[in-house]
Amino acid sequence: MIGFEGSPLCRLCCSGPNCSIIELSGSGWCAKLALKAEEMVLLQTVSRLLPLLPLYLMTAVATHLVISFAQTLMHYKLGHHRMGGKFFHNHINFHHTYYSKDHLVSKTYLGDECNNTPFFFIPVFLVGACTYLVLPLDLFVVQVVACAASFYAHVFFDNEYHVEGSRLQRFAWFRRKQELHFVHHRHANSNFAVIHFFWDRILGTYRTT
User: Fold this and answer.
1) To pair with 12 at 20 to 30 A between CA atoms, which of 31, 39, 49, 108?
2) 19-23, 60-64, 143-147 — which is least confidently predicted?
3) Which 3-state string (H, E, C) describes 37-92?
């Protein structure tokens, strides 16, 4: 712990290149100096993170697209083929029984019984486990956050599609996605995506409204 030469007004504790004031006495200029030190630390942090923002953004977008494709592929291959076992049984006998033909919405979402949502944690966990071994910690944290947000978005949208009078109905883009999802419930061999239906175009399962 050191002090300014010739001044008892404040004392500094230095660690590396940055100093922070831990004792103040008698004068406001020490407080101003402390504030400036905090601003410098904040500025240094921002200057370090700013060049990394494009990389963080690309990581988040890539993670979301991987989760979105995994959802579409699992829905297609497991949810509508007997090889899916319990996943197939739950999806066909409950979700597609609750919502079929002209009965596509309800006052509250009907999905608590035999919910398939936990199955989608499998690709999320696998992706996370693999990338933990290769990604730096900061990118791994970005990926985990993006993974959680993407997972929630898929569950949220699927629920909102089937809720009568959804608050999202006022948006044209939502009504468009909802209609594409309803096509899947009328024609179960098409439109397996929940958010991004370009995956169905790639898989050859896209069907217009």
Assistant:
1) 49
2) 19-23
3) HHHHHHHHHHHHHHHHHHHHHHHHHHHHHHHHHHHHHHHHHCCCCHHHCHHHHHHH
Report the interhelical angle of 121-132 vs 137-161 (nearest 10°): 170
Alpha helices by DSSP H, the chain = 28-49, 53-77, 86-90, 96-98, 121-132, 137-161, 172-186, 198-203
Split at pLDDT 50, 70, 90, the class of 209 is: confident
In sequence order, the β-bridge partners of residue 2 are 12
Highest mean pLDDT among 31-40, 49-58, 138-147: 138-147
Expressed in angstroms, the distance from the first to the final Cα of the chain is: 73
Residues 120, 71: contact at Cβ < 8 Å? yes
Give residue limits of the domains in the chain. Answer: 2-51, 53-203
For 111, the enclosing helix (H) or strand (E) is none
- Do you know the residue count of the chain? 209
